[in-house]
Design goal:
The chain is an alpha+beta fold and about 210 residues long. Helices cover about 35% and strands about 25% of the residues.
Length: about 210
């Protein structure tokens, strides 16, 4: 189970995380949810939200040292540092649906997006879901490439799905999660992520419900 590497902690989102999550959302999307929407999502029995936290001192050089020193002086517990990404998943009957995923601009191309997708897949496995689906903007080549690397495939299009500019959404889905080939891919991706960003360690459960 990937909980965190030497760089990041993946844990359930809390109410205290909402301001940082909203800032990431505003930097990533043309439109954003109000704070009350996230508060309701955290109370939604079908929803699960995870945040990726950059571990103190993970950044190289003086900045990383300052972060670690600042945490020590403030006596801030691990896991309460800067949030660099988040993912929201709805568990609907036997299918998990990724409703949102975003990475802070300065943390992109550093493995955060893949870690969040792996966390979503792990949630789906933990709840015996049959597959995972999502919608992504047709123009978002980087996101589509990430999902494809994680085993998602295009299964359809929702015309004019996004209200801000009437852009189409590409619908993507995993194969059945019980498929041996997909399970092998999932395990390989976890191992590759751990090799690249540090060994996996045991951390807080990503699903407390």
């Amino acid at each position: 189970m990937i909980q965190y590497s030497e760089r990041y902690l993946l844990r359930p989102m809390t109410y205290d995380d909402i301001p940082q999550v909203m800032a990431i959302e505003r930097a990533s999307f043309a439109s954003s949810w109000p704070q009350t929407a996230y508060e309701k999502e955290l109370e939604n029995r079908l929803a699960r939200y995870l945040v990726a936290v950059r571990l103190d001192g993970a950044e190289p050089g003086p900045r990383g040292v300052r972060r670690r020193l600042g945490r020590l002086l403030a006596r801030r517990p691990a896991g309460t540092g800067d949030i660099v990404g988040f993912v929201g998943v709805w568990l609907m009957v036997d299918e998990a649906h990724i409703v949102t995923l975003a990475v802070r601009p300065d943390a992109r191309r550093q493995g955060v997006g893949q870690l969040l997708v792996l966390g979503a897949l792990e949630l789906a496995y933990a709840h015996d879901m049959s597959r995972v689906t999502l919608e992504v903007r047709a123009s978002n080549d980087a996101a589509r490439a990430l999902y494809e690397r994680c085993g998602f495939r295009r299964i359809g299009v929702r015309p004019r799905y996004y209200t801000d500019n009437q852009e189409d959404a590409v619908v993507m889905s995993t194969p059945p999660l019980g498929d041996p080939g997909f399970r092998a891919l999932f395990e390989r991706l976890r191992e590759e992520h751990a090799r690249r960003f540090g060994p996996a360690r045991q951390g807080p459960a990503i699903d407390r419900r």
